[in-house]
Design goal:
Largest sheet: 8 strands, mixed
Strand content: 5-15%
Radius of gyration: 26 Å
InterPro entries: AAA+_ATPase, P-loop_NTPase, Signal_recog_part_SRP54_M_sf, Signal_recog_particl_SRP54_hlx, Signal_recog_particle_SRP54_M, SRP, SRP54, SRP54_GTPase_dom
Organism: Proteiniborus ethanoligenes
Subunit structure: Part of the signal recognition particle protein translocation system, which is composed of SRP and FtsY.
Keywords: Cytoplasm, GTP-binding, Hydrolase, Nucleotide-binding, Ribonucleoprotein, RNA-binding, Signal recognition particle
Order of helices and strands: HHHHHEHEHEHEHEHEHEEHHHHHHHHHH
Distance between the termini: 33 Å
Pfam family, one: SRP_SPB
Number of helices: 21
Helix content: 55-70%
Length: 445
């Protein structure tokens, strides 16, 4: 889970206030002490923590909370609002040029994930109807140009490169002309990084900035580096005047301090967050949704957006019709399974559901392998067997188990569950017909 350690500690600290009918100043003080410790342990900048705690305390010890019928809930509401403000209040969108192409300059230290993030951003913009071009301006790191070309192939986006003999400034300048000629409306410049900030790196980036005048300068920051990420952000912002931050490895074992500190320290928004290694796992950063997830309140809007992006509306209507007529087959089941997998890892989806806190997710063993096994079993069936599972006898079960690399017991379990589901759908269908006859109301299936 994103911010797992911090989320658990904050939820525990604030959970103690929930059941209390009345709150004293001491109750609030004790809760804030735990919140302060949780934030500091998560590597949030100490100045940011001090300001945050003071603001929450000032609001929480006010008349509005103390006289409320649900003071504990009011305090949690205040913490949620202040966390949202801390991370930027609302999403910050990319600034596109009035006359294409829009130029986006990617910068950051070596190892932060600039090249992969450039590809992810290109893929995201391509989905939105843009025609991006990736530009290889890292001429120093061995195989950096080749890496960007591989990334470009994977996301099916062209890569502009003129080798490592030209200067990065000349490459960046030439890429703009190339993009204009070839109808690319977004130019994403992948610049060189260093293991640490140095004058040569900054001078080169300043020269590229002055030459191509980018609409966006995005700093790619590794969320797992904690306070170092804040220091890096300050340095790059001071020299280049960054327009936003992309946080990578937010799905890793990150303490989360970077995300909570960068906005406050640099006054520049977090625009995107990478939540996985796949090229479609770059998301627009929503401070309000992230605050809700940290406090165990879920993130229903992101869940809906993921579902809308992954599920085919036409297929959903066809499925609804099949369910009504009890014609649901393994073919349909496989199709739904594959669409669900496109939404991302199950653990990430569960943390978006309100009421499921970090402690519950920790104890919940989400076995992604089981879904893989189910998919393999269905794919090992013939078309006839998927449409009419009643034909699957003992010898067929043995063949399906062998073909899917599973056991006969697993095949039997899936067949049993499928039959039980069909029986349940039949009952619901019968109930719906009865209710329709009596003219009361219609069930939503």
């Amino acid at each position: 889970m994103v911010f797992e350690g911090l989320a658990e500690k904050l939820q525990n600290a604030l959970g103690k206030l929930k059941g209390k009918g009345k709150l004293s100043e001491k109750d609030v003080e004790n809760a804030m002490r735990e919140v302060r410790l949780a934030l500091l342990e998560a590597d949030v900048n100490f100045k940011v923590v001090k300001q945050f705690i003071n603001t929450v305390k000032e609001r929480a010890i006010g008349h509005e909370v103390m006289e409320s019928l649900t003071p504990g809930q009011q305090v949690i509401k205040i913490v949620n609002e202040e966390l949202t403000i801390l991370m930027g209040e609302k999403e910050s969108k990319l600034e596109f040029a009035n006359t294409p192409p829009t130029v986006i300059m990617m910068c950051g230290l070596q190892g932060a994930g600039k090249t992969t993030t450039s590809g992810k951003l290109g893929a995201l913009l391509k989905k939105k109807g843009k025609r991006p071009l990736l530009v290889a301006c890292d001429i120093y790191r061995p195989a950096a140009i080749k890496q960007l070309q591989v990334v470009g192939e994977k996301v099916e986006i062209p890569v502009f490169s003129i080798g490592d003999k030209q200067s990065p400034v000349n490459i960046a300048k030439a890429s703009i002309e190339h993009g204009k000629k070839n109808g690319n409306d977004v130019i994403i410049i992948d610049t060189a990084g260093r293991l640490h900030i140095d004058e040569d790196l900054m001078e080169e980036l300043e020269n590229i900035k002055n030459e191509v005048k980018p609409n966006e300068i995005l700093l790619v920051v590794d969320a797992m580096t904690g306070q170092d990420a804040v220091t890096v952000s300050e340095s790059f912002n001071e020299k280049l005047g960054i327009t936003g931050v992309v946080l990578t490895k937010l799905d890793g074992d990150a303490r989360g301090g970077a995300a909570l500190s960068i906005r406050a320290v640099t006054n520049k928004p977090i625009k995107f967050a990478a939540t996985g290694e796949k090229f479609d796992q770059l998301e627009t950063f929503h401070p309000d949704r992230m605050a809700s997830r940290i406090l165990g309140m879920g993130d229903v809007l992101s869940l809906i957006e993921k579902a809308q992006a992954s599920f085919d509306e036409k297929k959903a209507l066809e499925l609804e019709k099949k369910l009504r007529n009890q014609q649901f087959t393994f073919e349909d089941f496989l199709d739904q399974l594959q669409q669900m997998k496109n939404m991302g890892p199950m653990s990430q989806l569960l943390e978006m559901i309100p009421g499921i806190n970090s402690k519950q997710l920790k104890n919940l063993n989400v076995d992604e392998k089981e879904l893989v096994h189910i998919e393999a079993i269905i794919q090992s069936m013939t078309k006839e067997e998927r449409i009419n599972p009643s034909v699957i006898d003992g010898s067929r079960r043995k063949r399906i188990a062998k073909g899917s690399g599973t056991s006969i017991q697993e095949v039997n379990k899936l067949l049993k569950q499928f039959n039980e589901t069909k029986k349940m759908l039949k009952k619901f269908s019968g109930m719906e017909k009865t209710i329709k006859k009596k003219g009361r109301f219609n069930l939503p299936f």
